[in-house]
């Protein structure tokens, strides 16, 4: 009979590897947008004016 701690160790390694692979895959399929990208999208959609965009950009950059 295989020792229980060997099975437990192998199972833990497999589970950790699967979780790591899933996290990496998900991060690549859903890249994070920068706050400046979001501001540009909102400006392009007409949700904010050019003036509001410039003010928000300046606040973001700490000017």
Structure description:
The chain has 63 residues and is mainly α. It has 2 domains: 1-31; 33-63, no CATH class. Helices cover 78% and strands 0% of the residues. It contains 3 helices and no strands. It has helices spanning 4-29, 35-45, 50-61. Helix 2 packs antiparallel against helix 3 (50-61). The protein is rod-shaped and about 75 Å long. The model has no long low-confidence stretch (mean pLDDT 87).
Question: What is the element layout, followed by pairings?
Answer:
Blueprint: H1 4-29, H2 35-45, H3 50-61
Helix pairs in contact: 2-3
Structure at a glance:
This protein is mainly alpha-helical and 63 residues long. It contains 3 helices and no strands.
How many E-type strands?
A: 0
Quaternary assembly: single chain
Helix content: over 70%
Structural class: mainly alpha
Q: Domains counted in the coordinates: how many? A: 2
Question: C-alpha Rg, in Å?
Answer: 23 Å
Low-confidence stretches: none
What is the overall number of helices? 3
H/E element sequence: HHH
Could you list some keywords that capture this structure?
63 residues; mainly alpha; 2 domains; 78% helix; rod-shaped; transmembrane; transmembrane helix; SHOCT; SHOCT domain-containing protein
């Amino acid at each position: 009979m295989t020792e229980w701690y060997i099975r437990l160790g192998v199972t833990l390694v497999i589970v950790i590897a699967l979780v790591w692979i899933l996290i990496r895959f998900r991060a690549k399929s859903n890249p994070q947008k920068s706050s400046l990208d979001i501001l540009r999208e909102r400006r392009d959609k007409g949700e904010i004016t050019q003036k509001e965009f410039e003010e928000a950009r300046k606040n973001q950059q700490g000017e």
